[in-house]
Every structure is written in structure tokens, then in C-alpha cells.
Amino acid sequence: MTHNAKSCMERPRKFGAKWTNKHIASDEKIETFELDYDGKRDRWNGYDTSSYAYVVERYEAREAARRKYLKEEQLKKLDEKNNKKDAEVGLSDEENDEDDLRIDEAKVDESKQMDFAKVEKRVRTTGGGSTGTVRNLRIREDTAKYLLNLDVNSAHYDPKTRSMREDPLPDADPNEKFYEGDNQHRNSGQALDFKQLNIHAWEAFEKGQDIHMQAAPSQAELLYKNYKVIKEKLKTRAKDTIIEKYGNAASEEEIPRELLLGQSERQVEYDRAGRIIKGQEILLPRSKYEEDVYINNHTSVWGSWWKDHQWGYKCCKQMIRNSYCTGAAGIKAAEAATDLMKANIARKEVTEELPPPSEERRLATWGTEVPDDLALDEKLLGEALRKEDERKREEKDERKRKYNVRWSDEVTPEEMEAYRMKRVHHDDPMKDFLH
């Protein structure tokens, strides 16, 4: 069985078929397929070819009706032409040509396939919109697009959709190619306009406008048209402004040929380098900017002097544009200041190079310096030595050491000297012979 009792689509019975042996449903045929990798991915797998017979019958009926209609139209035109022939005496050249095309009813019946050569409309096919016949057949002169390039690594052809998106002949001359792939329609014609319309809708939405191409396409298209009109107006206005300010060299009148090819009797001599020696003075071209304008008592223009990647005035060597000219005195003062600064820098460099003088200092035990002119009292020094001996005797046994806190005691010079005299230097090799 292919299903359980819960999934059964038959009418439920009071007693099951296996108990009553009645109303037994037909067995279901289960087909097992062992497909390979390509077979599992075949889009035509499971397709019944017999179902296409209905499509064939429908097209045949439509073709029969079409032929019948064409036959009636041809007979009607034939009758009209025959009637005109009896009424008219002379026939023109055009009518003589039409007589050659006349056919009778018998010929129409015999040549049922004659209408194949008549092209009535342009059929939109997947092959790029090639011109087809009434039967939507490909013209035999047009090579099939899957035969343009027989290389297996060339553009892929999908037989079901009859599409080939890539160009089968990418290296061929574009002027001689008839077919460039199905994607050529996406990059030509109105497809580009539609793409620009979508881009404009996205950008307008990002900038805060309530516009959506899919929700309101008419609104988006109208907004895009208005945008193009406004953009064209702004471009035209900018162009007119530039032409008004600078003129239009293209619209100006050409120089007369008499002036271009003009001759004169003026003699001009040149040297080997092409410089004029005699006959005409060299004319320097004038700039559109102001020239020889001196401000703030300067005798030279701004930019006549250059130093350290800065422009300045040559008369006073100042680099500030709006400065007042100080003349030669300003130059001397600036040079003196520069020399003084260089001397200070050199003196500082020499000072930094010299090592600092080392001073020998005899530091005390507690980080203080011992003055050379220190005067000590002999009695106080003896008392301090006695107290130092008592303190050391008490510290020999840590268990018997007393805990005495003397907050108010201050270290006197005699006590400091007694501490130095009794201190044991552990690095001294003669320490065992001192006491």
C-alpha cells in the first residue's frame, strides 16, 4: 500500500474490505525509478508525450480555419478583379502586374502550402525577434542560434526555454553579427530607460520622497519625466551663462582667408634659435589679470620673490601679501633676526652635546648629605654610642626585644654619627676585625 488508513481518500465503510471481502479498491501501481545524477535533475522527467496531442489538435483546427478564411478572401478579390476587367477597356501597367498574380479557385485548392511564403507579422521569438511566417516558423535561411558556435564551452543553450543569454560569437565583428545573445535586449532600447527609471525611484526614496516603482509606477514615471525636464533646463541655463560670460568660439565668424594668407614687405631677421634680431620687437602677451600694480608702498609685485616654497615681495622680502614695504631696512632686520636665531640654535646644540658635570657627593645613610663643617659634641656622641650598643644587644634575641615607640624622639647629628660608626657593612672584607 502507498498510504495508511488516515490518508486514504476512499469512502469509509462500516466494515473494512478485508473483513467483508466487498468493495475492494483497485491496487495502486508503484513505479520505482533508479535515476543517475543527470536523471534526477532532468526537467522533462515524468512528462507524458501523449498529452501533447491536444495541443496538436488545437493548432490543426486553427490552421484549417485560417486556410478557409484565406481561400474566401482570395476568391472574393478574384471576383472583384474580374468584374473590373469587364467594365474597363484599358489596363495600366500596375493592373497588368496584378493579372499575373491572379489565381482561380482550382489553383487555390491545389496549392494549400502557398501561403507559407507570405510573411504577415514579426514574430517575437526567443531567438531575438527574428521575422517569422504566419505559422511562427523560423526562416530556413536563418541559422539556428545553437548552431552558430559548436564549441561545447561556448554560450549555453537551454532547449526548454529556447534561450541563449550569452553571445555565442563574442570575438566576431559586431557590425556583421546578426545575433548577440538574449541579453542584448536588456542593454538596448527602452530597457535602459526602464533601468534609469528604477534607479531614479530608488535615489528619490532614499532622499525622503514617498515614491515606489512597483506600488505607484505612474507616479514614479511622471516624477522622472519632470526631473529630466528640470535637469535639461538647468543644463541649458548653465550653458547660456558660460557662453554669455566667455563667448562661443564655434559661432564666431572665421577669420578671412585674405588675412590668414596675407603678405607684407616688412623684413624680419632671425637667429639660429629662432629669436628676432631685427625688424620687429618681441611683444609679450598680456595676462587677463592686473599687471604692474604696486600696493602698500611696494616697488615690486607680489610673487616677484620665492624662498622656502613661499611667494613674497622682492623689494622687502616679505612673505605676507598685505604687509607694508619696509625696504632695505626691513631686509637687514630680517637677516639680523635670522642670524641671531641661527646663533642661538648653534649654542643650544653645543650645550646639549657637552656631558653634564658629575659632582661627587657623600650621601648619608638616610639620603641626606653630610656637611663638611659638621661639629659634634663629644659627650653627646659618647652617649649616642652607648645607646646604640644597648639597642643592638636588645635586637640580638628577637623574642626578648621590647616594643618601644618613641614618637617624640628626633634624630640628632650625634646619634646619626653613632649609627654610621656602629653600622656593619656586609660587603666590607674587614668587617670581622672592626669589633
Automatic annotation (TrEMBL):
**Which InterPro entries does the UniProt entry name for this protein?**
Slu7_dom, Splicing_factor_SLU7
Major subcellular location class: nucleus
Where in or outside the cell? Answer: Nucleus
Segments traversing the membrane: none
Region annotation (Disordered) maps to 385-405
**What biological process terms from GO does the record include?**
mRNA splicing, via spliceosome
GO CC terms of this entry: spliceosomal complex
Highest rank taxon of the organism: Eukaryota
User: Can you state the subunit structure given in the record?
Assistant: Associated with the spliceosome.
Provide the protein name.
Pre-mRNA-splicing factor SLU7
Q: Write the record's keywords in alphabetical order, separated by commas.
A: mRNA processing, mRNA splicing, Nucleus, Spliceosome
GO molecular-function term, one example from the UniProt record? pre-mRNA 3'-splice site binding
Q: Describe the family membership recorded for this protein in Swiss-Prot or TrEMBL.
A: Belongs to the SLU7 family.
| Residue ranges with Basic and acidic residues bias | 385-400
Is-annotated flag, keyword Nucleus? yes
Q: What does this protein do?
A: Involved in pre-mRNA splicing.
- Is Nucleus found in the keyword set? yes
Q: Where is the Pre-mRNA-splicing factor SLU7 domain?
A: 35-304
Q: Name one Pfam family in it.
A: Slu7
Organism of this sequence = Rhizophora mucronata
